[in-house]
Amino acid sequence: MPYETTPVIMNKVKHTLSKLQMAIYQPVSSLSVTAWVTKEPVPYAERESGTKIQLRPGDQWGELWDCAWFHFEGVVPRSLNGRKVVLLIDVNGELCLVDGEGTPRQGLTNINSEFDDSLGLPGKRVVDVSPSAEGGEIIDLWGDAGCNDLFGKYRSGTLKEAEIAVCHEEIRKLYYDFEVLAELAEQLPDTSARKAQIYQSLYEASNLLPVLDADHAFRASARIAGELAKRGGDPAITVSAIGHAHLDLAWLWPIRETIRKGARTFSTVLRNMEKYPDYVFGASQPQLYQWIKERYPKLYDKVKKRILEGRWEVQGAMWVEPDTNISGGEALVRQILYGKRFFQQEFGKDAKVLWMPDVFGYAGSLPQILKKSGIDYMMTQKLSWSVYNTHPHHSFLWEGIDGTRILTHLPPEDTYNSPAAPRSLAKIERNYLDKNVSDHALMLFGIGDGGGGPGEEHLERLAREKNLAGLPPVVQEHSLSFFLRLEKDVPRFRTFKGELYLEKHQGTLTSQSRNKRYNRKLEKSLRELEFAASLLWVLGGAPYPGAKLEQIWKEVLLYQFHDILPGSSIGRVYDESLERYETLLRQVRSMSEEAYGRVAGLAGWAKEPVLFNSLPWERKEWVKWEGAWHFVCVPAMGYRKLKDAVRKHAINGLKSEGQVLENNRLFVRFDEDGSIVSVYDKSSGRETIRKGSKANVFTIYYDDGDAWDFPRDYRETVAGTMKLERSASYIDGPKAIVEQKYRYGESALSLRTILTADSSVIEFAVEADWRESGKMLRVSFPTSVYSDQANCEIQFGYLKRPTTRNTAIEFAKDEICAHHYIDLSQPDYGVALLNDCKYGHSALNNVLDLNLLRSPSYPDPAADRAAHQFAYALYPHAGDFIQASVYRKGYEFNIPLAVAEASQADTAKQEPLQLVQIDHPHIMVESVKKAEDSDHIIVRLYETAGSSARGTISFGLECLSIEEADLMETPVAVLQDNGSRAELQFTPFEIKTIRARFRHAPGNSTMDLIEGGEKT
């Protein structure tokens, strides 16, 4: 007689699995449920302050984002004596059960939460009562709920279930035995004897289950035990597994809900650690730990114990997992500085792994930033999302623009939500692109974004998969342990040089533009404030406001999270961040003005304007004070009274007439539609705009994308252009201006095109009332410059990107990120496009293009339909972009001279000083600040041109010592003792951090501390 066919066996096994799953829990009696509903979360002590309602399954308790404290009451029936008793609770939302003091005890997630089913089911509804009940136990539980699912969706707001139930433990265990073996068999080839034997044993075990009870389950378990006991031989690959719960600090929910998601997740992890001794979990983002410490101190203490025990790994090194395309270079340094300090101070842990699983591309300067911060490894998986090209490696050395390399791993399963199932391990072995040279791979398992991380199902599977024949062995351990083993294969790994570009989500370079503008303004204003506060501190005028600066920085860093700054969160997130941004920017600027005013007072100047220059080169430019224009000269990183800074400067050839702007360097001609048809460079005798083309046309494209993406072929779907309604030409002192008003549909735009006397920069100042939906607004400049590469400024340097589309890789990189400038240069001439808050660009052939505004409808239906202000500029230049010092123009466009007045003069006048000087034109001073833990001044510099450079740094005060430090401010070399100058040697794009201690180090001053611009 033949054996049963495989299809019949498979169907029977699947049917048995389904029956087993349904039979695990048996509801016995209902709980009494009361809820107190509020619009925003309230603490445990105020849990009965909301609207009180009694609930039964099916009753509605809330709308989206409503909150409620639930009270579950009941008594375990006496009939359940000796049985394993659990509660089944599902409120169609997220719920955190607490203990009698209000400390989170366990997180629950509704079963019907949106989730990728291929990665498992997200729901967590089971609450353990007793492994062997006596009967009569009192159930008295409180839980803090949010009326939203895992991904912020509304799921009816009704109570689904609240039951006392029996857990049939023998059936539960048998279910996982069946599931693991059945899925293992699916992964094996049809010719495999192991596959046939597994299916046969499962088939025979199924036939032993006519009734689902403990006796039949025991016999079925015995039948398949032999297959579960089979062990693998010498492994070709070993998988390191670590529990993970990727938590977006805001996305489809507001920040307030993230804090509660963190509590639910952390408490669930702790509960599962009690049940599964092999369980090792990891979590990143010190900001999240800080919230838990502040809101749930007892939960935090429990987490801390697990960290010290070694069961819980603190991961990553940055304050949050930030966007690394848009965040500035110094901001990325501060992410690590504050992140590493938190982990060291709180847990005694030195973070060595950058944990960035979900970021939309990785800047080419990041390897150097990481290495100089003491980080040796990096983990991400987002590159697997690329649309056109597959990244060639999972394990590789990533080389940055300066030549620094860092060992990088992409989990081959291409997810950070692994189900930890046999298909996971099989996929890792099958897909690992570097398995020819490495026998180690990483797996991140669990359900993130409030789903509690790993659930019972993950941990039960792993218990059966440790060394199961047919699968690569898996071990639960820290990611650092994995990297230390992976490191032995470094000599065999390939190197990937340049940025790690994600061929997806390019829309995030532009979406939610107001947030991006505030971020740029705050980054520059914080730079200014730290310089001003450092100057005041070294002069003995006031203590350095380090604590306040740290507080402000950390909030700015929070908003650089990779779903906030890129623009991919719901509208409420931006309503809240814009309000806070405005407050922070006002505070920072007020503090800067106060500090500069006090510095002026220390110099003996009062009630007259003083100009401050925080850039490391002398600035000669026009400033306006009380309605009058002045041409001034201000020393590098120094200051001067306005009346002493004024220089005679003739205004020659300045014209603004009709359709023409002109000065002694440039001639600009407009078309009747408002576009620019000519920019003639008088100095070089060259036309900048391509013959027959129009520049600065406000072109609108159809854009049916979401916040993340817009169509790659958008150029084929032009919706129209903004139409010029009126134009006016006038002169304002040294500035020739053409002011234009445009309209398209419901949107209006005001543009001032400004040409300043003796300047080669044409400025475009825009105020836009943008009301379109499903549209994208861009401007482009067809130039007369031909180059196969565009020069794009990034953090601490620049990247050269192709202007051609000859290959799939070039084709995929159509929308690119740049910071202050993007430039096209021939050896003898070039054109740069500067901006003050934009990041999305394109460089196709000889056209420079800037993405100004978008209007996607998901996840924020009102995204960017608002009033906007921004500026950009065109800079034609002789020579290439290095010879023309384009980077300096970019900084000047973003950092104006500061003006301040002192209310009173100090009687002991101090001579003005230049705090820091550097004598090489390609070396930029990115920041000046007081050291975190000592009375040193920290100066961050970098080489801007991509070449070697030797320069001298000089301080305006006598120094006891000058040292080189790493980015964490730890000294690495003494450069000079008892001197105020030191020689510095830079390699291309090198970042250097200098620590200087002054001979007369400032002590605590009796003068008022600067806090928020007010005297305290």
Question: If you had to describe this structure to a student in words, what would you say it looks like?
Answer:
- By secondary structure, the chain is of the alpha+beta class.
- The protein contains 18 helices and 55 strands.
- A hairpin with a 2-residue loop joins strand 54 and strand 55.
- Helix 8 packs across helix 14.
- The protein is elongated and about 105 Å long.
- The relative contact order is 0.09.
- The C terminus is likely disordered.
Instruction: Name the beta content range.
Output: 25-35%
Q: What is the typical, i.e. mean, pLDDT? A: 96
Q: What is the structural class?
A: alpha+beta
Which term fits the overall shape?
elongated
User: Main sheet, how many strands, which sense, barrel?
Assistant: 9 strands, antiparallel
Q: How many beta-strand segments?
A: 55
Strand order of the largest sheet: 32-33-34-35-44-41-40-37-38
Ranges where pLDDT stays below 50 over 5 or more residues in a row are 1003-1016
Q: C-alpha Rg, in Å?
A: 32 Å
Task: Give the fraction of residues assigned to helices.
Answer: 25-40%
Number of helices: 18
Head-to-tail CA distance between termini = 94 Å
